[in-house]
Amino acid sequence: MERSKQILESYIPLAKSTAKLFGNHCEIVIHDLTNPRSSVMYTINNHVTGRKVGQSFDHLVKTVLRSKDFKEDYLSGYTYVTEDKRTIRSSTTLIRDLEQKVIGAFCINFNVEALQQMKQFMDAFLSTPVAVEDTREQSNSDMDNVEGIVDGLIQQIIQNSVHLGMKRHERIELIRFMEEKGIFLMKGAVEKVAEQLGISKVTVYSYLDEVKKKH
User: What is residue 91's DSSP assignment?
Assistant: First the structure.
């Protein structure tokens, strides 16, 4: 674990230089995915999205890993809207250790509000080309890579949370966290979580139902 921390900390100078190059609208976040529930280990210019050290990941599974454009351990140029309606353009690159296990993520978040205003101005004078939808699908190797990454997240989340004498409400809270982070959007996730928790699929589904009723 200490070696993983050293590897992740070695990316801090890159975070600082990237943020300085692109200015105050550019936020850099480094995630420690060996600690999924408190994965944010470093931020700079965190006023862009409000990310704080000790928070968990948000878009990794739901947006990045599930995208058909996620290849070679990165997804660049995806966008999302913050709670206060600002558009953020992002890039996420996974970080692996010497054994090629995913241990972290290097994320760049850019507030593109000013650029959007400029584009609206330009669109008043220039026609814009029609975007052609990319219909390519992920290759089998890309899908296997994503499956392996999610398997690792499931294992790490459960490993960091399970203890002897774990109560029902604690298991439900664990399921709630994984559901919130998009783990169960991935094919086969229920079976894998059930196996690692030593409970049945039916029990996992009942916990999920209970979690969703409370939303």
Answer: E
Encode pLDDT of 110-163 as tens digits.
998 767 666 776 777 676 555 555 444 666 777 788 999 999 999 999 999 988
Query: In angstroms, rounded to a whole number, what is the distance separating the alpha carbons of residues 118 and 122?
Result: 6
The tens digit of pLDDT for each residue in 11-51 reads 999 999 999 999 999 999 999 999 999 999 999 999 999 99
Closest CA to 152 of 203, 97, 206: 97
Q: Which residues contact 104 (CB under 8 A, 6 or more apart)?
A: 4, 7, 8, 11, 30, 31, 32, 33, 34, 39, 41, 94, 95
Structural domains of the chain, ranges and CATH numbers in brackets = 2-122 (3.30.450.20), 140-214 (no CATH)
Please tell me the distance from the alpha carbon of residue 12 to that of residue 44, in angstroms, as a whole number. Answer: 9
Residue 80's beta-bridge partner residues?
88
